[in-house]
Amino acid sequence: MMEAEVQYVFNQTGEPTAAIVPISLWREIESERETAYLLKSEAMKRRLLEARKRQQGLSLDEAIENLGI
Question: pTM for the whole thing?
Fold first, then answer.
């Protein structure tokens, strides 16, 4: 993860209650959370790993035709 300036918000007693992070860091965190969520399902994990190995995909027109839309 990239090093970024994180700002902390404290309450009246001096306890940290929130953090402000640069948007680039936040997007990286969101991406990692989404990946972790998807990998919880064995079926989705298998699909993602299979998709990663694929060398070619479908064009938009082929996908539309295959979906019948």
Answer: 0.53
